[in-house]
């Protein structure tokens, strides 16, 4: 290890526990909760194995009054949860890491859709994060009762083997609702001046400390500034004053900024936030606290980590996303293998799964995230190859490059070819969009690894700038197996999910109509007045609008779907909308195009007419009598309507299946966007999976994975019975 990084490996005392180094996986959601103990234990312990000194659960509900269904939290409500979470603590302890639990009570931000309980809060209000979720204003009995929930949960947490117990007040959950005048309108001893607003949190910390403080370190997670000016908590006012009050009760401070209603200011997407973007607020805390302070900020660069600690801004490097993208980040720093780090690109696709509710996390960079238990995938270890087959991979985008990488890691001889002169495929274009430069790390990681792997196995090859491979080329190549990863393209004819049909008059062959690829290629002149016709629910239309508006074009987006809907899930939405407003991009919502001509396009309101649906006879559908059509003028029409797989090569090979055997080919497989357009994360996953399962009789189709769920007749809760019993 480079000596300059040694400070990152110094132990630090937190209450009764010693953290072995300065790498700390803060609480973050993964979709495991307490109901998928195998997933929970494997995902967290892989980080402990990778060198993280501390790892945590996600937010962990202390009582059914804090039920976040359909998003997945952990829960520590009963003995069953204790037993399931103990699987995690035991696995993590095997690697000498500390394990923490983030005790959570959400107030009205937890909608209690499963438990049907009524959450309590300092005053009565509707959540500014949830829909239709009000809390009951707590009276003094309520306050005692809820504080006891924390104490009971802390005792269960200790029994489950946790070393660190949080009273979680960041992201505007209950303790912060008491502290912040934005929510707290009380006039009794729990409202008004700071000392009163802090009382609930301080008393809760004291009670939890009295209950488990000898055995466990007491942590608190605190949003030191809620970014709402004087309406909320401001770091130099209530922020540091609260830290002074609570410092004697806390063994570890975990500090961040922002509230749950816009928590992209905390888990900042790289589109808007650089590494360490919270430090201007976080740095105040060490000035008043005598306890260790940690914080997050997408810290992936060891130089920056060292600087942050040496300059006295933080004691411990907190990380969620960097630990997901690379569970072995600390080990790689320790071993001086910096070029092996799989750097988080800050896309927030991991978070999108939690926001959607239900599904396990995925990661754009790390295809094994969330697959540790159910598919048995280790991020750094691979099963040795099962044959001496040689493999040709056509297309070096996310799918093809990941497939080739994992095949080579497994010892296979692989030839990776691409007509482009760079690895990365679609990522090379996307990373040129405003703010998305860091997405290029996806390509960089694979480029570096493939270059190293080819050096190790001289029979493997990467051929960039190759010719466009035809079916003949593939058949004659001499490989035993072939992987087709030729990607997808944006539609040229306006076809989208809205009408499933081309739009009359639309063609990207015309000089005044362009697809995103044509913009990236710079192959057409873009006129002054631009209309972007959008049916894509993610970032392409807003990103191109930003790019073109910044270049001086007058931009309108005509959209038939909610613009940037998926960006709500990646937390990019609020700032994306602010950018578009600042650039005067006009958004024409709820419209689609009936036809287009040079210089003008006819749009209609998708909710036009015909709310009374009735049978009028064939061809007389009331909704087709839409009379909302209007013409809009443009100089260039940008077509962000839909994508289609580049599947011609595969289809031709499929037609010539009889020739496979004659040419010694055992199988040809299709992955990534060429199979169906998808997220970069899912294309990467496709490539990774195929490489792990290539010896299967039918590797095109995934192996079943291990499912964790209740099985009828098996007592999954201590003392449970599966009889159906009615209370009569
Ligand atoms: P994915 O996300 O599925 O990896 P991409 O579109 O990012 O898909 O990457 C596909 C890659 O395949 C591109 O780099 C493209 O240049 C390359 N490609 C497509 N068709 C061919 C072909 N017939 N011969 C060689 N390279 C190809
Ligand atoms: Fe980072 Fe994106 Fe992976 Fe999340 S999904 S850890 S933001 S690379």
Automatic annotation (TrEMBL):
Keywords annotated in UniProt: Flavoprotein, FMN, Iron, Iron-sulfur, Metal-binding, Oxidoreductase
Cofactors required: [4Fe-4S] cluster; FMN
Organism: Chelativorans composti
Family under the similarity heading: In the N-terminal section; belongs to the NADH:flavin oxidoreductase/NADH oxidase family.
One family name in Pfam for this protein: NAD_binding_8
Residues of the NADH:flavin oxidoreductase/NADH oxidase N-terminal domain: 8-339
UniProt protein name: FAD-dependent oxidoreductase
Domain TMADH/DMDH/HD second alpha/beta: 514-641
Stored InterPro entries: Aldolase_TIM, FAD/NAD-bd_sf, NADH:flavin_oxidoreductase, OxRdtase_FMN_N, TMADH/DMDH/HD_second_a-b, TMADH/DMDH_FMN-bd
Source domain of life: Bacteria
CDD domains: TMADH_HD_FMN
């Amino acid at each position: 290890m480079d000596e300059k990084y040694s400070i990152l490996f110094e132990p630090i005392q937190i209450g009764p526990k010693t953290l072995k180094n300065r790498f700390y996986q803060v609480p973050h959601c993964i979709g495991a909760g307490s109901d998928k103990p195998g997933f929970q234990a494997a995902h967290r312990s892989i980080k402990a194995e990778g060198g993280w000194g501390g790892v945590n659960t996600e937010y962990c509900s202390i009582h059914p009054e804090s039920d976040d269904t359909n998003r997945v939290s952990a829960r520590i409500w009963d003995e069953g949860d204790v037993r399931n979470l103990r699987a995690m603590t035991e696995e993590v302890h095997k690697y000498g890491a500390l394990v923490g639990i983030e005790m959570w009570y959400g107030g009205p931000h937890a909608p209690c859709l499963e438990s049907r309980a009524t959450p309590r809060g300092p005053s009565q209000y509707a959540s500014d994060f949830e829909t239709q979720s009000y809390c009951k204003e707590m009276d003094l009995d309520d306050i005692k009762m809820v504080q006891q929930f924390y104490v009971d949960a802390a005792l269960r947490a200790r029994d489950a083997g946790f070393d660190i117990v949080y009273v979680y007040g960041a992201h505007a959950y209950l303790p912060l609702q008491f502290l912040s005048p934005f929510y707290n309108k009380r006039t009794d001893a729990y409202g008004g001046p700071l000392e009163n607003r802090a009382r609930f949190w301080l008393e809760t910390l004291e009670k939890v400390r009295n209950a488990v403080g000898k055995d466990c370190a007491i942590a608190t997670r605190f949003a030191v500034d809620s970014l709402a000016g004087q309406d909320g908590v401001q770091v130099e006012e209530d922020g540091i004053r609260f830290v002074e009050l609570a410092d004697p009760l806390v063994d570890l401070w975990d500090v961040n900024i922002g509230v749950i209603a816009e928590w992209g200011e905390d888990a900042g997407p790289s589109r808007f936030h650089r590494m360490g973007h919270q430090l201007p607020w976080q740095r105040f805390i060490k000035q008043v606290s005598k306890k260790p302070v940690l914080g997050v900020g997408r810290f992936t660069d060891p130089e920056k980590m060292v600087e942050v600690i040496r300059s006295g801004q933080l004691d411990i490097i907190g990380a969620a996303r960097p630990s997901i993208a690379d569970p072995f980040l600390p080990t790689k720093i320790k071993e001086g293998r910096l070029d092996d780090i799989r750097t988080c690109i800050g896309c927030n696709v991991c978070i999108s799964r939690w926001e959607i509710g239900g599904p396990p996390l995925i990661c754009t960079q790390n295809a094994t995230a969330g697959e540790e238990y159910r598919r048995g995938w280790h991020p750094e270890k691979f099963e040795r190859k099962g044959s001496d087959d040689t493999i040709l991979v056509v297309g070096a985008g996310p799918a093809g490059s990941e497939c080739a990488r994992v095949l080579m890691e497994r010892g296979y001889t692989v030839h990776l070819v691409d007509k482009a002169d760079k690895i990365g495929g679609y990522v090379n274009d996307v990373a040129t969009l405003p703010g998305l430069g860091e997405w290029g790390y996806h390509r960089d990681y694979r480029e570096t690894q493939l270059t190293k792997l080819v050096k190790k196995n001289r029979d493997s090859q990467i051929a960039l700038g190759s010719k466009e491979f035809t079916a003949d080329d593939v058949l004659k190549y001499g490989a035993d197996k072939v992987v087709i990863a030729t990607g997808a393209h944006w539609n040229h004819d306006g076809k989208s999910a809205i009408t499933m049909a081309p739009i009359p008059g639309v063609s990207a062959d015309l000089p005044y109509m362009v697809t995103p690829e044509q913009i990236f290629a710079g192959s057409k002149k873009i006129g002054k007045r631009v209309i972007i016709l959008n049916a894509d629910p993610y970032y392409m239309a807003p990103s191109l609008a930003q790019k073109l508006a910044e270049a001086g074009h007058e931009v309108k987006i005509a959209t038939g779907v909610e613009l940037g809907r998926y960006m709500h899930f990646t937390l990019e939405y609020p700032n994306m909308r602010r950018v578009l407003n600042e650039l005067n991009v006009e958004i024409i919502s709820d419209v689609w195009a009936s036809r287009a001509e040079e210089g003008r396009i006819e749009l209609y309101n998708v909710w036009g007419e015909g709310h009374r649906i009735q049978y009028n006879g064939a061809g007389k559908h009331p909704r087709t009598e839409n009379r909302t059509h209007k013409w809009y003028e443009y100089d260039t029409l940008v077509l962000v309507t839909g994508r289609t797989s580049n599947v011609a090569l595969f289809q031709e090979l499929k037609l010539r299946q009889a020739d496979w055997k004659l040419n010694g080919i055992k199988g040809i497989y299709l992955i990534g966007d060429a199979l169906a357009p998808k997220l970069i994360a899912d294309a990467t996953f496709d490539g990774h999976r195929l490489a792990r399962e290539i010896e299967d009789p039918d590797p095109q189709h995934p192996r079943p994975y291990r499912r964790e769920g209740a099985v009828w007749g098996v007592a999954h809760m201590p003392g449970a019975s599966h009889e159906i019993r009615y209370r009569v």
